[in-house]
Amino acid sequence: MSIHVKNNITWVGQRDWEVRDFHGTEYKTLKGSSYNSYLIKEEKNVLIDTVDHKFSRDFVLNLMQEIDLDKIDYIIINHAEEDHAGALTELMSRIPNTPIYCTENAIDSINGHHHHPEWNFNVVKTGDSLDIGNGKKLIFVETPMLHWPDSMMTYMTEDAVLFSNDAFGQHYCDEHLFNDEVDQTELFEQCQRYYANILTPFSRLVTPKITEILGFNLPVSMIATSHGVVWRDNPTQIVELYLKWAADYQEDRITILYDTMSNNTRMMADAIAQGIAEVDPRVAVKIYNVARHDKNEILTQVFRSKGILVGSSTMNNVMMPKVAGILEEMAGLRFRNKKASAFGSYGWNGGAVDRIQTRLMDASFETTIALKTKWRPDCDAMEVCREHGRTIARQWALSPLPEKASQPEPAAAPAAALEVPVNAAPKSTAAGDAGQKMVCSVCLWVYDPATGEDSQDVAPGTVWSDVPEDFLCPECGMGKDVFDPYEG
Ligand code: FEO
């Protein structure tokens, strides 16, 4: 089946109503997904992206209903991941000499997956264009790390359509293709889930890249993504949302996540939430047992929050494994501008809380006081937990609290629980210090002034402020603006 998109552009993609896992089992696609491929028939016939490899044969048979495959002049691969380039082997077996246009990095990935180095690859860079006749051109824009090193977008002049690949997409399946035709609540939930779980680590790159694209002053009538809807009604609304989400996004929201062996840590979570809501009813408070709830929803809530509390019982002197797992994932997502605190109940020792607090700090959260309770919290301990929630509400308030709520907490707490002042705040070191190392926020490569960077003629002893402005991370190719002081 196909869907008319605009003028001579046709959707020839594949819906996937039943997919529930992406990236192994790390991303739950609760609303399915789609793999959007587009066929342009101008004086030249162009195919933009393919579909997931598991639909290769269906895709090619469907495409043959639209065009004689031998009449395809160019194939554009905006991104080489298997959900977009997966059908290349099936397609190229029928038209092996057709030119493929993609970034240099994409060739590495396509060859790595399909093992056909003899294919007719043509490398493109930002600003390169391809004349497709009838006065129209395709202009290419590299978008490295949004979200893979090979990613790019393709802009079609005259029709003013931006084929954005993963960016601005959603894992969302619907019989309708256009954004104005689908349930808006579902759509924007999936947009935010997609950004929070996939693009958050690269937020520092989103704004400069969008600014670069806007700098071309090209009109945009549609944004044709490779997952989910085509944005035709007010297409730049999703661009504006990306700019907002990339700017250290937070809402007046606190997320509490935990796992519990004997219900005791869950009791603490409830009491802490009560204390927060009591002092600051403006705050949205959400509680999740990480062992029982959709992980990607929890991470989306973390993305939305100004702060999080992470709790675990102590088991074998460490935290429970599902808490450790989500902490590792949060470290990878590199959330910014968020506070955090650990809590948990223990029997023989309280090692979990200390370890959580350390992991939160490693993940760049600004940590505040932690809380431990021994065994099942009694009435006194539950009151300590509520008071802990009140303290958190005061400390994390985004604006002044009402007079009554802003009163300081009691000087002494009952002895049934223990507040643990661990790692009060991340160290802050000026980037101008002579020995200050700097870390790339995209790939975590570390610049050490003691060694410099030989391949770019940065001599040993060069402090960061003297490193040339055109310096690029030797690992991922990003510029100086994505580097942060290294606290390790
Ligand atoms: Fe939709 Fe990065 O693949």
UniProtKB/TrEMBL annotation:
SUPFAM superfamilies named among the record's database cross-references: Flavoproteins (SSF52218), Metallo-hydrolase/oxidoreductase (SSF56281), Rubredoxin-like (SSF57802)
Family annotation (CDD domains): flavodiiron_proteins_MBL-fold, rubredoxin
Domain Rubredoxin-like: 435-486
InterPro entries: Anaer_NO_rdtase_flvorubredoxin, Flavodoxin/NO_synth, Flavoprotein-like_sf, Metallo-B-lactamas, ODP_dom, RibonucZ/Hydroxyglut_hydro, Rubredoxin-like_dom, Rubredoxin-O_OxRdtase
GO molecular function: electron transfer activity; FMN binding; iron ion binding; nitric oxide reductase activity
Signal peptide: none
SMART domains, per database record: Lactamase_B
Family: In the N-terminal section; belongs to the zinc metallo-hydrolase group 3 family.
PANTHER family xrefs: ANAEROBIC NITRIC OXIDE REDUCTASE FLAVORUBREDOXIN
Protein name per UniProt: Anaerobic nitric oxide reductase flavorubredoxin
Organism of provenance: Mixta theicola
Lineage, opening ranks: Bacteria, Pseudomonadati, Pseudomonadota, Gammaproteobacteria, Enterobacterales
